[in-house]
Amino acid sequence: MSLSGTAAYDDPTTTGALPPLVQRAVTAARAHGFPYSCRPEQGRLLHALASATGGPIAETGTGYGVGLAWLTSGAPPGTHLISVERDPHRAAIAAELFTDHPNVTVLPGDWHHITDHAPYDLLVLDGGGTGKTPTDPPADPTHLLTPHGTVVIDDFTPSPTWPPTHNGTPDHPRLHWLTHPALHTTEIHLAPDLATVLGRRTGVSQRRRSPS
């Protein structure tokens, strides 16, 4: 969720040509006065990650479907995508946007609904499961990701220091993901004011058997 994500699509010099499905989702977000859409920089990253994904994809926080449209536009044909939106009105409108894409499912409700269909090759945590608020504990990548699956957590402010800080204090949610023992994680700066954390599951370790 980007605070000015929808407005970022107003400048054609920064957005460039958009996939038609993304343009439709942006139009829906504008029509309903929704400002928190996935930014173009993040969308292009999601598009690229989805194109290299061979298995199911999940997203929390559909909004009006902008991020999901980037994912769907990039994913190989037949890839199953699931997105969860807690606002039933937004979920219904987003679901209508994807009626021509039977491989895409928009679920109304809490983000925990994605656990019913896990594991995923690509998981985008945008509307829940990030751990950014005290009432939102972070999702468990060992349950939600396939071995070597990728998790994406966006909308961080770039920090030049270690540990990373936000508003002058240690950024504990970001540290949680950057130091997660089940992930190889890095931070990517997509714009001067926008960073995204990418984590790849390290795989399921196997205990070696002693020689008989």
Report on this model:
The protein is α/β, with parallel strands linked by helices and 212 residues long. The chain has one domain: Vaccinia Virus protein VP39 (Rossmann fold, 3-Layer(aba) Sandwich). It has helices at 12-15, 20-31, 40-51, 66-74, 88-97, 141-144, 172-178, and strands at residues 57-60, 81-85, 104-108, 120-125, 145-156, 165-166, 169-170, 183-191, 194-201. It has a 7-stranded mixed sheet with strand order 3-2-1-4-5-9-8, with helices on both faces. A two-stranded antiparallel ribbon has the order 6-7. Helix 2 packs antiparallel against helix 4 (66-74) and helix 3 runs parallel beside helix 4. The N and C termini lie far apart (54 Å). This is O-methyltransferase.
Compact summary:
The protein is an alpha/beta fold and 212 residues long. The chain contains seven helices and nine strands, in the order αααβαβαββαβββαββ.
Essential attributes:
alpha/beta, SAM-dependent_MTases_sf, 212 residues, methyltransferase activity, seven-stranded mixed β-sheet, methyltransferase, two-stranded antiparallel sheet, 7 helices, transferase, Rossmann fold, O-methyltransferase
